[in-house]
Amino acid sequence: MRAGGLADEIVGTARSAETRATALEIGICDRVYDTAAEAVQGADLVVLAVPVGAMAAIAAEIAPHLAAGATVTDVGSVKQAVIAAVAPHIPAGVHFIPGHPLAGTEHSGPRSGFASLFQNRWWLLTPAEGTDPAALARLLSLLVAMGANVDVMDAAHHDLVLAVTSHTPHLIAYTMVGVADDLRRVTDSEVIRYSAAGFRDFTRIAASDPTMWRDVFLNNKEATLDILGRFTEELFALQRAIRLGDGEHLHAYFTRTRAIRRGIIEAGQDTAAADFGRSAQVQAGVKPAGVNPAGVNPAGEEH
Ligand SMILES: NC(=O)c1ccc[n+]([C@@H]2O[C@H](COP(=O)([O-])OP(=O)(O)OC[C@H]3O[C@@H](n4cnc5c(N)ncnc54)[C@H](O)[C@@H]3O)[C@@H](O)[C@H]2O)c1
Ligand SMILES: O=C(O)C(=O)C[C@]1(C(=O)O)C=C[C@@H](O)C=C1
């Protein structure tokens, strides 16, 4: 938003004085406040960017201080639980439009943001029926101006799609790295020394924020358990094929999955969410000038 000149003023808050000072120092906020209650006063748009499990408390804190006509959105990775936590606190005359950018890294904190983070990435919105169309259009055009492709969908559908494309894969990465760590004790660090690219990718994902991901799994329980159940069934089928020497089964399975990967690349997608049907889609048409002036990642971190 800063790089595209999309907001007159950006005001922030965070729990620690260090985070607030960093936000000012690197110029992502014009002003910072010690509390969320102070930060939201007079704001046209309020973006809740805390772990899913912290959304309810923040919503309760800011509710009495929201300006009439303001829009509240969030970036939580789960939507039904966030709606249940936040919506009851939103006063009449304030628009609540839940959202989820499908963009991020394993890094946390203000230095991990970078201006091109949302460019050509999906940003899903899950507004309730009856949401003010003008408020929805306003938020949507802001996200498009930030370079995102916006899609509007039902919250339950979102949670199922993300259980497939993001939540269960993270759980599998966490597990695989845990297994390798157990093994490392036996093999005296060979697993780390000889880790190939596939395992390194798992370790990047498994380095993601523990609080964020604890909250994702606790708040998207049903969909994650559903997909995890299907995953273990398929895993057992592959395990059986290996035990029986059923090369045909393995080859057919890997051929099918290779076609899925190629399909994603041909469609130019970074995420597979779009394959699950959508009720509305707006391709990013506006590319704000001057985006990402400092390079892809000002923190110079791997992402
Ligand atoms: N990192 C990603 O890849 C990614 C992508 C899309 C959406 N999200 C979602 O965005 C949200 C924020 O994640 P992030 O990656 O920006 O994390 P972050 O760690 O960079 O920022 C989270 C902020 O919330 C604060 N916070 C944590 N617990 C709190 C509490 N109990 N009360 C008040 N503040 C609290 C932290 O101090 C921090 O300032 C999460 O809901 C996450 O699910 C993350
Ligand atoms: O690349 C990564 O580090 C991510 O995992 C980002 C990722 C994802 O699964 O795609 C993680 C969680 C979000 O809610 C959205 C994006």
Number of strands: 9
Q: How do the strands of the widest beta sheet line up side by side?
A: 6-7-8-9
**CATH architecture identity of the largest domain:** 3-Layer(aba) Sandwich
Count of the separate structural domains: 2
Amount of beta strand: 5-15%
The helix-strand sequence is EHEHEHEHEEEHEHHHHHHE
- Fill in the CATH topology of the largest domain: Rossmann fold
InterPro entries: 6-PGluconate_DH-like_C_sf, NAD(P)-bd_dom_sf, PDH_C, PDH_N, Preph/Arog_dehydrog, Prephen_DH
Pfam families: PDH_C, PDH_N
Organism: Rhodobacter ferrooxidans
GO biological process, one term: tyrosine biosynthetic process
Q: What can you see in these coordinates?
A:
The protein has 303 residues and is an alpha/beta fold. It folds into two domains: 144 residues, 3-Layer(aba) Sandwich (Rossmann fold); 119 residues, 6-phosphogluconate dehydrogenase C-terminal like domain (6-phosphogluconate dehydrogenase C-terminal fold, Orthogonal Bundle). The chain is 47% helix and 10% strand. The chain contains eleven helices and nine strands. The chain has a four-stranded mixed sheet with strand order 6-7-8-9, with helices on one face. Strands 3-4-5 form a three-stranded parallel sheet, with helices on one face. Strands 1-2 form a two-stranded parallel sheet. β7, α5 and β8 form a beta-alpha-beta unit. α3 packs parallel to α4, α6 packs across α8 and α6 crosses α10. The radius of gyration is 21 Å and the shape is globular. The two termini are 20 Å apart. It binds nicotinamide-adenine-dinucleotide and prephenic acid. The site of nicotinamide-adenine-dinucleotide has 20 residues, from α9. InterPro entries: 6-PGluconate_DH-like_C_sf, NAD(P)-bd_dom_sf, PDH_C, PDH_N, Preph/Arog_dehydrog, Prephen_DH. Keywords: Amino-acid biosynthesis, Aromatic amino acid biosynthesis, NAD, Oxidoreductase, Signal, Tyrosine biosynthesis. GO terms for molecular function: NAD+ binding; prephenate dehydrogenase (NAD+) activity; prephenate dehydrogenase (NADP+) activity. It catalyses: prephenate + NAD(+) = 3-(4-hydroxyphenyl)pyruvate + CO2 + NADH.
